[in-house]
Design brief:
The structure is a homodimer of 202-residue chains. Helix content of chain A is 49%, strand content 8%. With 202 residues, chain A is an alpha+beta fold. Chains A, B: It holds the Pfam family GST_N.
Chain lengths: 202, 202
């Protein structure tokens, strides 16, 4: 049995929940309130010394951290992560793009706005972060003008990883109107078999 | 034949050069001066729309971006990236850790100090970045106190990815004295067969 340590409002956690649902895998869900320091307790740091959710514990044994590594583990041997050498690496290329060039500039502004609030000093980070967020969306837009999905023209974990925070971009004050190919792709991803929404109220 | 678009002072590029050397693969090296905008020209953006080095062109065909995805492509099917499902994902866990929790806090301060200079306004970012850099080094230290290498107790691309900027930490004003296990691991990595240094003057 798998145990997912997660926080419901986390897009990184949602990546894992979405793939677990689409693979039809049952698991134990443990909510960790990151706003109350529950991922920095000694007990949690024993599971993930980097103090972050999501973390996936496998059969009461090893704990795997990093949302995109969890996606790879869950997708290994399935069509969600092609096994052909170049396609496999191209999926990883987009997963690293997501963590380095997208997440800090889409997810972090969303976090500041939703969890810290518009009076918080970290609001000063928003203009620069959102500029880079628009750069990331433009890279996605150019790519999706030429194909329906990120790799091999079919739905993979590259789409899952990029969908997670892109479909919440409005909560980061990012307007998707200038990115029609991204918006069409969001609709295609949401129409995949077994798709589940991120939050109960969605 | 492979073509590596790179910048000699880049640790991300060095990861690829190191593995190419250790695998004994010959390739064409194309230096792109990031300080003169050579990765933002229309010609380069056709190769990597995200405008970054390193980028690896495969037989005049597709171009793979993201240093850690290039490592995976180069290591696929070799002992540098174990094929066993959990170990494979654990390697990826450390590669994502490197890009999200280490590179922005070790490589970026180094870039500011070496390429922008101590009079640059971005120096204001250093205290917060270096604090998180020390957090990343502490996560590595705790892990390496229990094992010689990051995954499966043998040298893999997880070690290559983390070695690249950690062995330049002094150039980022990060003192490795408090991290003896990290320092011992740096020595072990540098002693691997086929190891090459990053810069000609090293």
């Amino acid at each position: 049995m798998l145990t997912l340590y997660d926080y419901l409002d986390s897009g990184n956690g949602y990546k894992c929940r979405l793939l677990l649902a689409q693979r039809g895998i049952t698991y134990t869900y443990v909510e960790c309130n990151i706003m109350q320091g529950e991922t920095r307790t000694p007990q949690f740091l024993e599971k993930n010394p980097n103090g972050r959710i999501p973390a996936l514990q496998i059969d009461d044994g090893p704990v795997l951290a990093e949302s995109n590594a969890i996606l790879c583990w869950l997708a290994d041997g399935t069509d969600f992560w092609p096994s052909e050498r170049l396609a496999k690496a191209q999926v990883l290329q987009w997963l690293f793009f997501e963590q380095y060039s997208h997440e800090p500039y889409v997810a972090t502004p969303r976090f500041i706005l939703r969890h810290l609030g518009r009076d918080h000093p970290r609001m000063a980070e928003l203009p620069e972060r959102l500029k880079k967020g628009r750069d990331a969306l433009q890279v996605m837009e150019s790519h999706l003008q030429k194909q329906d999905f990120f790799v091999s023209n079919r739905y993979t974990i590259a789409d899952i990883a990029l969908y997670a925070y892109t479909h919440r971009a409005h909560e980061a004050d990012l307007d998707l109107t200038p990115y029609p190919a991204v918006r069409a792709w969001l609709t295609r991803v949401a129409a995949q078999p077994g798709h589940v929404k991120m939050l109960p109220g969605d």
